[in-house]
Amino acid sequence: SHIRHAWDPTKSVAQNLAEMGLAEDPNKAVPIPKKKLLGMEVESDGREQGKQIVRKPYVVNEMEYEASLPEKKSNTLSRDLIDYVRYMIQNHGENYKEMARDEKNYYQDTPKQIKRKINVYKNFYPEEYKDFIASLKQEKMDVQ
User: Fold this and answer.
1) DSSP string spanning the chain?
2) What's the half-sphere exposure (Cβ side, CA atoms, 13 Å) at 4?
3) CB-based contacts of 84: which residues, under 8 Å, 6+ apart?
4) How far apart are CA 117 and CA 141, in angstroms?
5) How far apart are alpha carbons 132 and 123 in whole angstroms?
6) CA 59 to CA 7: how far, in whole Å?
7) What is the Cα–Cα distance from 50 to 41, expressed in whole angstroms?
8) Which of 54, 80, 123, 134 could make an S-S bridge to 21, C-beta 3.0–4.6 Å?
9) What average pLDDT does the structure give for the chain?
10) Domain limits of the chain?
11) Which residues, in sequence order, are bridge partners of residue 40?
């Protein structure tokens, strides 16, 4: 969006990028040094790029600032997976072999796969998991 706002449609791509202080060709911006071949030095092209004046440095500054901001974690689980895990725990407790034989195990997960899914749920929603287990214990006490 920063580039879009600073873009001048009357100029070429190279001119626009040069004014913003951005590189048009990354190979020219950061050249790879030539290596020595069998003891002989290979000379570089000898071309030096002329320094271009950056007229819009705020574009690069804004992009650097935006890149330095911490990334928001948006890790969530699908509603289907949450419902699946809660159903399995509610009906089978900690018996993963029984969960694997359950008719709602549509993807035919093995006991280890089910255990892994439950652990992922525990890690993503620790508070919700604790509340769910507490409500299950409360239900068992009410039934007895």
Assistant:
1) -HHHHH--TTS-HHHHHHHHT--S-HHHHSPPPPPPBTTBPPP-----PPPPP-S-HHHHHHHHHHHHSPPPP-----HHHHHHHHHHHHHHTT-HHHHHHSTT-TT---HHHHHHHHHHHHHH-HHHHHHHHHHHHHHHHHH-
2) 1
3) 104, 117
4) 27
5) 14
6) 10
7) 25
8) 54
9) 84
10) 1-68, 79-143
11) 37
**Burial of 113 by CB count in 10 Å (0-12 exposed, 13-18 middle, 19+ buried)?**
middle
- Of 88, 128, 123, which is closest to residue 104 (Cα–Cα)? 88
pLDDT tens-place string over residues 124-133:
999 999 999 9
Q: What is the pLDDT of residue 38?
A: 54
Residue 114, pLDDT score:
96
